[in-house]
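Protein modeling request. Please complete all fields; requests missing the sequence field cannot be processed.
Requester role: graduate student
Desired output: 3D structure, token encoding
Chains: 1
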Amino acid sequence: MSSELELEEKINKTETLFGWLWELSVDGMRLLDSLGRIMMVNDAYCRVVEKKKEDLVGKIFSEVYAEPERERLLTSYLIDARSNTIKTHFEREDTLWNGKKCWFDFSNSFIEIPEIGKVTLSIIKNITERKRSELELKDSEEKYRTLFNNANDAVFVTLLSEGKTYGDFIEVNEIACERLGYTKEEFLKLSPSAIILPGYIDEFNKYNEKLLKETHVVYELVHRAKDNHQIFVEVSSHLFTYKGKLTVLSVARDITERKKAEKKLSKTSMRLRNLASHLQSVREEERATIAREIHDELGQVLTVLKIQIALLSNKLRKDQKELKDKLDYVSGLIDSTVGKVQRITAKLRPNILDELGLIPAIEWQANEFQNVTGIQCSLSLPAEEVNLEEEKSTAIFRIFQEALTNVMRHSSAKIVSILLQTINNLMILKINDNGIGINNEQLSASKSLGIIGMKERALLLGGEVIIEGTPGKGTEVKVEMPLTNILKQRVDDDND
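Delivered output (496 residues):
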């Protein structure tokens, strides 16, 4: 059998092929002999069947297809070749050797080549995407007819113009006409922007662009009826091809009652959060009051006892050593009690938070944590105190305490890195440990009251707590707190 190069030389001599067109063609081109062997292929054909040229030339053409199809295709070709008939043009779905299903467009013809004889020239195009679009169109049309004729929601059909913007309505259902107060004839003279509340046009355009990329979007809008009353709707839009043009089918569900319920629920939720915020403030005030009373009242009594014991001890004679030892023991108990009182008051409300501010309080708490647990703390804090409301400082400090408590109880960490910084209008606190890492199940567990409490504290003041864990590498707790009172403004706006 002649090599491909020899064949090309013979073909070039007889000037029966188009030379450069063979290799530059975007369509696959293939020459077969009467037995179905591949004589020549171009690069485009190799791309179509996903095989290299050297793996094709000299092989039976049907080997590019899946095993179950090979014999049938070869038999059909041999019958045509012997009877001198050929299927000049047809489309067919085939399964390639690698299992991939594709649609192909075949154009076949017999040609005579000197010194070789009759061969079959096939021009093959991969039309999978086109056929898929046709099938999707057929499916879309069936869905459209069913949906359009039976839907209880408003249905609109529009054509996209060349500028990729919504064109005029080409079809609407009766529900759309009844809801918006237009006749069908009036509707077909409008564009979608005519029924959208002006404040939502930008939102509408944004989802229109998204639709062009994803072919299906769901979003909320406010429709404006002919009499100008407003209707909250949830729109589900599908992009498909109809008669060669991009077409949008939109189903709009009236969610006005749902939006009213959501607004009512939002107000109720806001009131509950305001109540929780108030209770949290009251709790902090009570803790501060109790801490001061314990420190002042009990501290004074213990101080007096200490002084009296010292005076009594000084009056003892040298031969009263046993009694002196007991007084020294009592004095030690008083010192120990003073230390416990200080620790209790610090837990209730550390004076350093009120007197020096958040940054010293975090530094003090980190040192206390390190001394108690032996876990090393690395601090990165601003050089100067940040002007932050007392309520927010308290919330950040309490979240910080809870985060350290979780590190101590659950993380098995050796090092904790603490970063406090301000970026634009946000104060950001990050606590990173190198422990086992919290998992998603622990994060979402209803019994994780500490995590829930941290998030609620931040949420009450317009902030956010984000917790992420990496198995075997550790956990990050990130607190973002606005420096200005965004939540209060939000509440005021809602009350308006």
